[in-house]
Structure formats: structure tokens, C-alpha cells
Amino acid sequence: MKHLHRWMPTLLLVTGVGLLIPLGIRQVLRTPEESRPLAAVMLGAYLAWMLLESRVTLRETRKPTAERDSATLELYAVGRLATILLAVAFPTLEQGPVPRAVGLFCFIAGVSLRLTAIRTLGRAYSHRVRLPDASLLVTGGVYRKLRHPAYTGMLLAHVGYLLVFPAVPGLAVFVLLFVPAVLLRIRHEERLLLGSFPGYAEYAASRKRLVPWLW
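User: That's the sequence. What structure does it adopt?
Assistant: C-alpha cells below.
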């Protein structure tokens, strides 16, 4: 069971890539001609992002299983995969190339923010929630402005993805499952951080979680 638990992120990644390629190609081909290049770029960019983060996913298989994840990763990953796959499995709402271009911009901005946050965390970053090393509280870089910029980037990227592929089932799963899974994960992480870092409460009091000036 522990072995399956350790390999679960990799299994979900392989499943996601394996299904996204054929479903995404079909969706691109049925996208209106004037928007098809944007859809093709979006599909290629999303797959490239998944492969880029696969290095982190594979590292998870070599880490100890002493995480405090409480299955939040599985819920988060299922919500993400369901969002991206349903968005390309069903016909999209009719819209022109301008909203799709805005979506592609949001996607690039979101992924850039997320990768910057991961790079800032360095060895403190993990897909799973683990008991943190007391010396690894990161408050610099993008963490000067937000407590969870990696999740901000993740959500912004998927808002962009759904503007390019606005299928109703994908939009529904994003709102009803993926976003709540991210919020649940944030709450879980913060409880652990508050109990592990004496200075975290002071740090958190001066920064919003996901959106500057709002929350």
C-alpha cells in the first residue's frame, strides 16, 4: 500500500498525459479555424508544463513516506485531471479568438508564477505535504507578497486553459472540485506550518493567501 501511495503522483501524471494527447488533438481539430492555432499552442504548452513538472513528480517516488498529506494530493490531482480532460472531451462554448488569446496569456502568466514559486522554495518544495524542516521557511521572492503563490499560479493557469477550451463540464469540475481541493490543501498546509514554525503566524498575518489585497 505504501508503495502504491508513493507512486500515485506518477501514475496520475502518466494517465493524464496519455488521455490529454488524443482528446486534446480531437478538440483542437474541432475548434473553429480562426481559433485553432491558439488551441494548438495551448495544448502543446500544457503538455510541456506537465512534462516539466514531471521531474518533481518522479522525485516524490524517492522521498520518505513520512508526509502529512492526508490524501489532499490525490483529491487535488483528480480535480486537476478531471478539469483538463473534460475541457477537451466535450464541445466548447462558442467564442472568438480574443477570449482564447486572453486565456493563453493567463496560462503563461500562471505557469510562470508557479515555476518561480517552486524555484524559490528549492528543496523545500514537495508535491506532498510533509512535516517541514524548521530551517526551511521561505519568506523571500514571490513569498514576500503571497503565502501560496504556487497555487495562485496553478489556478490562474487553469482559468486560462478553460478560456481556450470552455467546455461546460470542465468549467463545472473546476469550480466544484478543483478549486475546493486547492483551498482544502491550503488550510491543511497552514495548520501544519502554524504548528511547526513559531514565526509563521506573524508571517501569515502580513500576506494574503492567493490574491493580493483580497484573500
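The domain at 2-61+75-205 is CATH 1.20.120 (Four Helix Bundle (Hemerythrin (Met), subunit A)).
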